[in-house]
Specification:
Layout lengths: L6 E12 L5 E6 L6 E4 L7 H7 L7 E6 L13 E5 L20 E5 L5 E9 L3 E5 L9 E12 L2 H8 L27
Antiparallel strand pairs: 1-2, 1-3, 1-9, 4-9, 5-8, 6-7, 7-8
């Protein structure tokens, strides 16, 4: 079976990024006993990643690179923000030094309520500097791997994507307020 929309794909990969002196450095890889699994065409992977695998079959090897604009975008200096340290106080009115440490990835809520991850860059007596860029922003990602299996998703797997737990208790039977096939961004209309 070829990889197409609604295929369950399992694969092993290694991801490299540019290193020193023009070499590449290994940044991620799947454990041998635990391949990456996803359902193709549902936004679980980067669109360009899925496009590079479209039409491949079990046993096929792949070797492709994604430019920053195909992956996590260019690094944006305006994504680095310095915020008042008091914004990171815990319920006891003290700075949350257990979770907010230099290098830590912490969840932040935007003004519209969206939760995004930020990396803590620096902590001073008065402020915390965070970076809202994805850790791989500005990087070219090189993927090398092998497709392990490809199969058609079951109706239950697809239904779970259309109606995740908590959406009408899973029993909405396609009511308008539930996710439509292929729309993983807005639960409510």
């Amino acid at each position: 079976m070829k990889i197409e929309k609604d295929s369950v794909v399992s694969l092993h990969y290694k991801m490299y990024m540019p290193g020193d002196n023009g070499s590449e450095e290994l940044w991620e890889q799947t454990p041998q006993k635990h391949p990456l699994m996803y359902i193709h065409g549902w936004g679980m992977m980067l669109p360009a990643f899925e496009a590079a695998l479209e039409g491949k079959e079990a046993g096929d090897e792949f070797d492709f690179s994604l430019s920053p604009d195909q992956a996590y975008g260019n690094y944006d200096e305006t994504g680095v923000r310095t915020l008042a340290k008091k914004l990171f106080f815990n319920g006891d009115g003290e700075f949350d030094s257990e979770r907010v440490t230099e290098g830590a990835i912490i969840p932040m809520r935007t003004e519209d309520g969206t939760v995004i991850n930020a990396q803590v860059i620096e902590i001073t007596d008065e402020s915390v500097t965070i970076d809202l860029n994805h850790p791989y922003a500005g990087e070219t990602l090189h993927f090398v791997g092998t497709i392990q299996t490809v199969r058609q998703a079951t109706e239950q797997e697809l239904d779970d994507l259309r109606h995740p737990k908590g959406c009408c208790g899973g029993g909405c039977k396609g009511k308008k307020h539930c996710k439509k096939e292929g729309d993983l961004t807005d639960m409510y209309q």
